[in-house]
Design goal:
Length: about 450
């Protein structure tokens, strides 16, 4: 993997959101396909089209517990004049060597059992006397308790049309049909289909392994006591959860102190289990923003194509960003700002698409819609910056949540959308049609 970050750049250049994202997406490549057992493939993206080798169901079978009959034998049957049929045996699910149903006969049949030769329909047991010689019954007695139910006679109180309560062979999918398309994310229903057509393994792109770490000596693990000047580390939890939501296998690393050597060592240790590294914090211009210092010499920095570039983006929140590749395998790394809202917005705009690209998906972006701004006053936005404001979206309207501060975690927790204000717009009046990125 060759990083675009190695080319000479102007440190004072203000990158657009689109330029930064394009740089990331031209560098990140889908992971190589592997063959996995079905349950191990959950959440992965299918590489090849899957063709059905055998029809589903593979044979005509009953959708009810009841009796397999010939249509002519139950024509005109009713409560007053039921059709009396000879029971010639049982047909259970998985049965072989089926009995034949001839004129005036019926076979007791269970749900999922193959339709025996000669039968044309199934009458539910509730339409019969269950062989007891009385009125309609609610169900069958267990064969172990009443083996005589598989013989004798049964009275049928309703007629049945040909094919009634019969699942025809191939009525789900037919042999030769395409069961699943390449690019499908394998969830429980897709895995069920693969199992149903006999696939034990499947070729997929694996879920990316994403390592998330936050930086800052002020950060404390949730559950521990806060000291003076300390705050709880929320970013690493938020981004790890976001990475999992995007489809990755995500590993959270505890907050790393503002020490370049410790951070560098931690990152190098994590390379062995990372397809993508994400850091948060330490990318601004402060004296203790050590991510820049640490990443200047991490891993195999002398190899062609390595290195991380730090940029200023024309966006709010999230102006400071870093991107590049590190280590002997040129593992992509995205360095995000430390303010919680800046970090999360940056993840949605840049990290999530990178994860989806690693997965081999074509649709890598969140859904964007147009909505009417519902607000008490106009929204202000700095000139030349693309602003992303938190909001709630419902019924074609979007309402801002919280203020513009990049530290407002509570407001973020109540938002389900981002309101996008373009670079050339400084004020958005209530009632204006705006772009909205839907979250979740």
């Amino acid at each position: 993997m060759t990083s675009a970050a190695t080319r000479p750049t102007d440190p004072d250049r203000l990158w657009s959101v689109d330029e930064h994202l394009e740089d990331i997406l031209t560098t990140v490549r889908p992971l190589e396909p592997i063959e996995l057992q079905l349950l191990d493939a959950q959440g992965c993206v299918l590489v090849d089209d899957i063709t059905v080798p055998v029809s589903l169901p593979p044979f005509d079978n009953s959708s009810m517990d009841g009796y397999a009959v010939r249509v002519a034998d139950v024509a005109g049957a009713g409560e007053e004049f039921p059709a009396a049929l000879e029971v010639v045996g049982d047909v259970a699910a998985g049965a072989a060597g089926l009995v034949r149903v001839g004129p005036g006969q019926a076979a007791r049949i269970m749900t999922g059992a193959p339709i025996p030769p000669g039968a044309e329909a199934v009458v539910p047991v509730e339409w019969t006397d269950g062989g007891l010689g009385e009125g309609p019954v609610d169900g069958m007695r267990a064969r172990s308790l009443a083996p005589e139910g598989a013989e004798g006679h049964v009275r049928v109180h309703r007629p049945a049309e040909a094919g009634a309560h019969v699942r025809a062979a191939g009525s789900d999918v037919k042999a030769g049909d395409r069961a699943l398309e390449a690019g499908t994310i394998l969830g429980p229903p897709q895995i069920a289909l693969l199992a149903a057509i006999g696939r034990g393994t499947v070729r997929v792109r694996p879920r990316p392994r994403v390592v998330v770490m936050s930086t800052g000596s002020e950060l404390v693990q949730p559950g521990e006591a806060l000291g003076h000047g300390q705050i709880y580390d929320s970013n690493s939890f938020a981004l790890t959860a976001a990475a999992r939501d995007a489809g990755a296998i995500a590993y959270r690393v505890g907050a790393v102190a503002d020490d370049a050597d410790i951070l560098r060592s931690t990152i190098e240790d994590q390379l062995v289990r990372a397809d993508l590294l994400v850091t948060t914090g330490g990318v601004s211009v402060g004296a203790y923003d050590v991510v820049k210092e640490a990443l200047a010499s991490v891993g195999d920095e002398d190899e062609a194509g390595g290195g991380v570039e730090f940029r200023k983006l024309a966006m709010q929140p999230g102006k400071p960003q870093g991107f590049g590749s590190i280590g002997p395998d040129h593992t992509p790394l995205l360095a995000l700002p430390g303010n919680p809202v800046s970090s999360y917005v940056s993840f949605e705009l840049f990290v999530r698409p990178a994860i989806r690209t690693l997965m081999g998906l074509e649709d890598i972006h969140r859904t964007s819609v147009r909505a009417t701004l519902k607000a008490d006053k106009a929204l202000r936005s700095p000139k030349g910056r693309r602003q992303f404001l938190r909001g709630t979206h419902t019924g074609g309207e979007v309402t801002p949540v919280g203020g513009e501060g990049s530290h407002l975690v509570a407001a973020l927790a109540h938002a389900d959308a981002l309101i996008v204000v373009p670079e050339d717009v400084e004020s958005v009046e209530p009632g204006t049609d705006v772009e909205v990125v839907l979250l979740g």
